[in-house]
Design a protein that fits this description.
five-stranded mixed beta barrel; alpha+beta; globular; OB fold (Dihydrolipoamide Acetyltransferase, E2P)
């Protein structure tokens, strides 16, 4: 009888030890994906060599054609993480929940011409859908990044994510 109690106590201690060791990883935040990590070095170099944009001119500043090809960083495929950005709705429910959207790094992208380069637009699907009160509202998107081109009248994306979570943006320091 005492041997059974000792075995149970040992098993209980091992189980508790396992939970203590594993629980920080289960509840840990996903790593943040930086928007610039999605741009190949060649595209970053082109952006850095561009003259400063004048907003007083007749029309929008144009990006070099090479950047608009949508080159990707192959190493980003399969990266699991979270990314902050703004939502450009593509598909909603009758009740107004957003199911499919483009995620962009700044407010107004895809609405104002020209849109960002395709490697700075992510096509996102989220089966649960979420409420979007204003286009100025930023969100955190969690999921696994895929290299997948999506084109429509609003823009072209080089990456996609099937979101596992969509949450209002709150900066973590």
């Amino acid at each position: 009888m005492f041997a059974g109690v000792n075995c149970f106590s040992r098993a209980a201690r091992l189980g508790l030890l396992f939970l203590l060791l594993v629980s920080p990883f289960v509840h840990a935040e996903l790593p943040e994906i930086d928007w610039l990590d999605l741009m190949p070095k060649e595209d970053l170099a082109l952006l850095e060599s561009m003259p400063e944009i004048e907003h007083e001119g007749d029309g929008p500043a144009l990006l070099p054609d090479e950047i608009l090809t949508g080159r990707v960083v192959e190493d980003m495929a399969g990266t699991e993480g979270r990314l902050p950005g703004f939502v450009v709705p593509l598909k909603t429910t009758k009740g107004g929940r957003v199911l499919e959207f483009f995620l962009v790094p700044y407010y107004g992208a895809c609405i104002h011409v020209p849109p960002p380069p395709p490697n700075q637009i992510i096509h996102v699907t989220y089966k649960e859908g979420f409420e979007l009160n204003a286009l100025t509202e930023p969100f955190w998107i969690e999921g696994t990044l895929r290299i997948e081109r999506t084109e429509n009248d609003i823009g072209t994306s080089s990456y996609s994510i099937e979101a596992t979570a969509v949450e209002p943006y709150q900066h973590t320091y």
